[in-house]
Amino acid sequence: MKITFLGAADTVTGSKHLVHIEGKHILLDCGLFQGYKILRERNWTHLPFPAEKIDTVLLSHAHLDHSGWLPVLCKQGFKGPIYASKASRDLTEILLLDSAHLQEEDARRANRGGWSRHHPALPLYNVADAKRAIKQIVVMQTGREFQIGNAKIDLIPTGHLLGATALRLRTAEGTLVFSGDLGRSDDLLMPPPQSIDKADILLIESTYGNRLHSGENVQSKLGEIIRETIRCGGSVLLPSFAVGRAQALLLVLQRLKAAGEIPENLSIFLDSPMAATATTLYQQHRKLLRISAGETTRLTQGITLIETPQDSEKLTRQRWPKVIISASGMATGGRVLFHLKALAPNPRNHIVFPGFQVGGTRGAALIEGAREVKIHGQYVAVKAQVSHLEGFSGHADANGLMSWLREFKTPPKHTFVVHGEAAAADTLRLRIKDELGWSVSVPEQGSTEQI
Asked: Which of 30, 34, 10 is nearest to 18 (CA)?
């Protein structure tokens, strides 16, 4: 067995791990690099291994840092199947199409505005590329083994996101487990990750490897922020991931209204067609959720859904107090940028980031106190209040990761800590070594390990 770490080895994004096993080349995840420019530039490179020689891709879940490079892989020659759970397949379709559309729009806008150094500016991939990749996704049922050559594969639910799974490969060479992203035991929407009792080789994510969730009551805190902001005549902007985070926010807002903690007639807008579509998918897959059928049905009750770009533009000009949920969650693109431009210069407004922010993104800069941000080639003053509610995160924190690891009945022969920034990955490595006594390391980007 041989593993080449092609992404999420020295950073938290770009998840790609190429496994050479039983004569097959299997890629675990195929994600986009996000955040700092030096990382995003990796998205434009070819793999050091011919894409057409990869036999299959196993997808842990739909988030773009795990799925968003699939259209590029297919452009580079990959023709094989992409295996995923049914919910992951459904979410991946809307995420890839939206990603492609945004890239096309950003390229057109850059060409019109003349702020790109590339002439012409081109998208990493287009909608046709995304559709090609989506056609190659094959749905597999969770908890039921299937075979790739001599390898037996199964998908094990991990919470975190609708359809998210760990990936387990069993062969005569041993058992490899890739955690994907692990959810938290107290997630608002998803049940806790299922435990796994054995692996010879383990790849464990470390997004929150050096942090603990604060334990704050996010519903109470968000209610307080909304009440204070509307009292001052301002608006609350919630930059949100369209999948997962937006649905959690809708749930909390409905609970706040039901409890009388925010006005029943408060104007709440969901300005993300993808989030609206994803919410419908959550309702269709409601049996995978931990909330009641009634709460699932009421997620968009009394919420104004903004469909067209024209209606979104009108919303940016409205001055009365309101709450806006808009993508993207790290303010890296999409409609939320227009709302930021409109709301950030006014100190009566409040910008609330409900989740993890990758270094190098506008979201990370804002929660670190940036007083101006560059949007569409121009600097925008930030006078609005900015808050970070990490309690909405869908990731297990450091203790949650360790609790999941303690469910293993026997130690893996070796554990690789992936999918974390350097400090997070190394902190988790030390905890695994010191508290569990396991053989563990953090792999380098591009390195190959012979097991």
From this structure: 30
Domains and CATH numbers, the chain: 2-211+395-450 (3.60.15.10), 218-392 (3.40.50.10890)
Q: Is 104 helix (H, G, I), strand (E, B) or coil?
A: helix
Q: How far apart are CA 429 and CA 442, in angstroms?
A: 7
Using CA atoms in the order 41, 43, 45, 51, what is the torsion angle rounded to 10 degrees? 170
Burial class (CB in 10 A: 0-12, 13-18, 19+), 448: middle
**Which H or E element spans position 11?**
none
* Cα atoms in the 13 Å half-sphere on the side-chain side of 312: 19
Question: In a 10 Å sphere around its CB, with 0-12 CB exposed, 13-18 middle and 19+ buried, how is residue 436 labelled?
Answer: middle
Task: Average pLDDT across each block of 10 residues of the chain; the chain has 451 residues. List them in order.
Answer: 96 97 94 92 93 97 97 97 98 94 83 70 93 98 92 97 97 96 96 97 97 91 98 96 94 98 96 94 96 96 96 94 93 92 97 88 94 94 95 93 98 98 97 98 96 84
| Element spanning 59, H or E | none
DSSP 8-state class, residue 26 = E
**Taken in order 395, 404, 89, 9, is the CA torsion positive or negative?**
positive
96 CB burial (10 A radius; 0-12, 13-18, 19+): buried
Cβ–Cβ < 8 Å for 43, 73: no
- For residues 93, 94, 96, 99, the Cα torsion angle rounded to the nearest 10 degrees is 170
pTM for the model:
0.90
Under a CB-based contact definition with an 8 Å cutoff, are residues 29 and 83 in contact?
Answer: no
Would you list the DSSP string of 301-361?
A: TTPEEP-SHHHHHHHHH--S--EEEES-TTSSSSTHHHHHHHHTT-TT-EEEE-S---TTS
Asked if 211 and 424 count as a contact pair (C-beta separation under 8 A), the reply is: yes
Which residue type, as a one-letter code, is found at position 365? Answer: A
